[in-house]
Amino acid sequence: MSMALTYTPIEEIPEIRNDLRATFKTGLTRSLEWRKRQLYQLARLTQNEAEAICDALARDFAKPRFEVIVAELAGVVHFALKSAEKLEEWTQPEQPDVPDFQRSWKPTIYKAPKGVVLIISPWNYPMILTLQPLVGAIAAGCCAVIKPSEAVPHVSKLLAELVPKYLDTSAYRVINGAVPETTKILELQWDHIFYTGNGRIARIVASAAAKHLTPCSLELGGKSPVVVDASYDMELAAKRILWGKCNNAGQICVAPDYILVPRQKQDELVRGFEKAYKTFFPNGALDDAHYGGIVNDFHFQRLSALLDRSQGEQVGGAFEGKRDPARRRFEPVIVKGVDENDSLLEEEIFGPLLPVIAVDSLDEAIDFINARPHPLVLYAFTEDPVVKERLINETQSGGIAFNDTFQHLAVGELPFSGIGESGYGYQFMRYSFDAFTHLRSSVDIPKSEEHNLSLRYPPYKAEAYQLLGSALNIPIPE
Q1: Which of 25, 144, 159, 205 has a Cα-to-Cα distance from 168 of 20 to 30 A?
Q2: Using an 8 Å Cβ cutoff, are 434 and 443 in contact?
Q3: What are phi and psi of 15, to 5 degrees?
Q4: How confident is the model at residue 4 (pLDDT cuts 50, 70, 90)?
């Protein structure tokens, strides 16, 4: 169901940024108690408004309630509360281990908020991918502008209503809009930009940020491969892969994008997919309330075109591959016998299409992965330590997950990041705090050190060269 989203007037956007900058200069956000209150309020927003959020996401693209609760809202509450709990630990100044002669200098690392930051979030997981970075910004003591996606108008409208209801509007604001509004936002100077989306827009964001020397976190995506070892349980692998692909109808940056399976195991894996699909959706996924829709007509048509141009063999049986353009419903489709030039390998699929590529060796699978841009995650189903070690050492990806899909996202203590085309900058829990924090180094040289510092003053004596340049005489191991 579409609706008209009220956009923020362009002329107000610089004023919003300036208001937040004025707030930051007052020092309001530096108080740890204030930060905790804001984190608790964010958790309350998520808990109290859960039904309204589920309803908004259902209206925008029929996102199943279970997926909203489990994959979006529960995570926000957990991250907010855990960050509040850890705040004193994270913000504590650190004294690094230094040589004895430098200890009196009191070398210290202070955790300083970067300032006024910008969070640009996507449509596919609009709550967790908006509020999870916001948790990090609040914890770090930053002010923030949130720019949610216009592709999910019900959610973006709701965010614009809820943020001022729960959070301090002198520090946190929502700007709604499309290209003109985002263009104006990016003309302004920010102290950090956190963008989640695709590589094309990321280049625009990074280019705009570069004009102001603004640091960025870019959480992108790419074609995340799945390697299935011949010795692994094909039925279990199929079940776990299909579950990962069906989440949000495949519209997530860490969705399994394509499968590399030993040629002799391809049909067995496909049979596993059929069995899992019948279990998940006994009457097919088209009208199942536990399966989501495609976000808009553009993406529905894009997915249809990718599938229609594929030269692979569409698996039948349980997979009927039904589509309903009027409701933007698109059942999962497995395509086997796909080669490297197929349409399904042209771009990140970001939908419920899953190509299966038969390979004759692990070497071939590794070469196939390495011939493409680095993915956000590499999945591998294997219990063979040699296979695991080779994949760790001979491939590159943002993360690597063995024997399941998605579950690495459940471990908040692990850094989440891309590499290369899949983005850069770490997030989750402490890593989100760090993203919005400046490590401010400090020393405090006492007067009593003057005797030890005397050699640095001109005129320079031979003793000064010998003592202060002594590293040049240290033996270097062969």
Answers
A1: 205
A2: no
A3: -65, -40
A4: confident
Phi, psi (rounded to 5 degrees) for 405: -120, 145
* Sign of the four-CA dihedral 138, 193, 350, 382: negative
DSSP 3-state of 389? helix
Q: What is the distance between the alpha carbons of residues 259 and 353, in angstroms, rounded to a whole number?
A: 11
Q: What angle do CA 427, 207, 179 make, to 5 degrees?
A: 90
Buried b / exposed e over 215-248, threshold 16 CB at 10 Å, is bbbbbbbbbbbbbbbbebebeebbbbbbebbbbb
Query: Looking at the DSSP assignment, which residues form a beta bridge with residue 108?
Result: 442
Q: How confident is the model at residue 465 (pLDDT cuts 50, 70, 90)?
A: confident
Supply the pLDDT for residue 317: 82
What's the pLDDT tens digit per position in 104-116? 999 999 999 999 9
Instruction: Enter the tokens of residue 290.
Output: 């536990």
Q: Sheet containing 216-219: give its strands across.
A: 172-174, 143-147, 116-120, 192-196, 216-219, 423-424
Assign 3-class secondary structure to 309-352. Answer: HCCCEECCCCCCCCEECCCCEECCEEEECCCCCCHHHCCCCCCC
Task: Name which of 145, 156, 134 is nearest 53 in CA terms.
Answer: 156
| Whether 201 contacts 195, CB under 8 Å | yes
**What are the tokens at 245?**
């692909």
**Rounded CA separation 384/396 (Å):** 19
| Residue pLDDT, tens place only, 53-67 | 999 999 999 999 999
CA-based nearest residue to 238, from 383, 405, 359, 397: 405
Per-residue CA distances from 212 to 121, 189, 209, 443 (Å): 21, 6, 6, 29
**pTM to 2 decimals?**
0.95
What distance in Å separates the CA atoms of residue 41 and residue 33, rounded to the nearest whole number?
A: 12
- Tell me if 417 sits within 8 A of 423, measured CB to CB: yes
Is residue 401 within 8 A of residue 408, CB to CB? The reply is yes
Residue 469 amino acid letter: G
